[in-house]
Specification:
The chain is an alpha/beta fold. It is about 30% helix and about 20% strand. The protein binds adenosine-5'-diphosphate and magnesium ion.
Length: about 300
């Protein structure tokens, strides 16, 4: 019963299924959230040249994080003592066999779930015990999720999908639309604003999903097997996009993957086994992906952008 790798196979802490709120819990923006554009300047303290100067301070600090499911003889220890530090602007790959705890770690990192033991600091806050609305608020302003599969709502256009999570925040509609358009531009698909998911390629849909994840201006992007459901071409395109977000906006990124080739696109690879980190190594000869499905304009749009 370990084959499902995404979050959809388990209940969210609030009892709802995570897949029913794909990114949504993650990216409802708070009024204080920086805009997508502000991200680059926020990380470019004193740069002045427009090139982001990375703030490399510690974003994530985990010490002895454990997570158990169930009790007694039936208890499963999904995380068995995780020590992990992530600096702002790093891009990590998290690899390991199915059942090794990768998704559980992503859920704890993203404040979707609480650890059983240990301590977790996110930025300047101790978030170890944080739950409920406080966790949801922090998640909304800082964390974005890209889960396996795409989860765009078929009844909404690209813009509609991107705006949806921001509807849970408090920005006025015009501001949400502005951010949605900006995010769509950032993923290179401004001409798909009014297109419905049914008329997008897999790679395009995934890029719209990425736009939705980053529209509110998060600080960390957590991607659980984002290329797992895609063909190779689309997978490379998504990887290229994630690397672009990393490079251009200094976004901190953790990407879970089974594929060593995908992992080689990160700066650092963390290997997990049985709920533990078994190695943590910098990537030599890092790979860089190039987008391959440059979107053909003018297909399937219901109205001009
Ligand atoms: N909600 C849950 N209830 C019980 N056991 C779970 C739950 N979620 C995960 N597990 C167990 O925790 C372990 C780690 O799972 P997971 O984090 O999904 O691993 P991975 O993502 O590396 O495949 C597995 O043994 C899995 O069966
Ligand atoms: Mg998993």
């Amino acid at each position: 019963m370990v084959e499902a790798d995404g979050p959809g196979d388990r209940p969210a802490p609030d009892g709802s299924s995570v897949s029913s709120v794909p990114f949504l819990s993650s990216v409802s923006a708070t009024p204080a959230a920086p805009s997508a554009a502000a991200l680059s300047t926020a990380s470019g303290s004193g740069g002045g040249s427009g090139v982001p100067v990375a703030d490399r301070s510690l974003l994530v600090q985990m010490r002895g994080i454990t997570k158990s499911y169930g009790r007694g003889a039936a208890a499963v220890q999904a995380l068995a003592g995780i020590d992990l530090e992530i600096r702002r602007g790093e891009m990590l790959a998290l690899v390991g066999p199915s059942g090794s705890g990768k998704s559980t770690l992503m859920h704890v990192l993203g404040l979707l779930d609480r650890a059983t033991g240990g301590t977790y600091r996110l930025g300047d806050r101790d978030v170890t015990r944080l739950g409920g609305p406080a966790a949801a608020r922090l998640r909304g302003s800082r964390v974005a999720f890209v889960f396996q599969g795409i989860h765009l709502l078929p009844s909404l256009t690209a813009l509609g999908n991107i705006e949806l999570p921001m509807a849970y925040g408090r920005q006025p509609k015009g501001e949400r639309r502005r951010r949605a358009r900006e995010a769509l531009e950032r993923v290179g698909l401004p001409h798909l604003a009014h297109r419905y998911p049914g008329a997008m390629s897999g790679g395009q849909a995934q890029r719209v999903a990425v736009a939705r994840a980053v529209a509110a201006g998060p600080e960390i992007l957590l991607a659980d097997e984002p290329t797992g459901a895609l063909d190779r071409r689309s997978g490379r395109t998504v990887l290229a996009l994630v690397q672009e977000l990393h490079r251009t906006f200094g976004l901190t990124i953790v990407i879970v993957t089974h594929d060593p080739n995908v992992a080689a696109h990160a700066e650092r690879i963390i290997q997990m086994e049985d709920g533990r980190i078994t190695s943590d190594t910098p990537v030599r000869d890092r790979l860089f992906a190039e987008a391959e499905d440059a979107a053909p304009a003018g297909q399937g749009e219901r109205a001009p952008a």
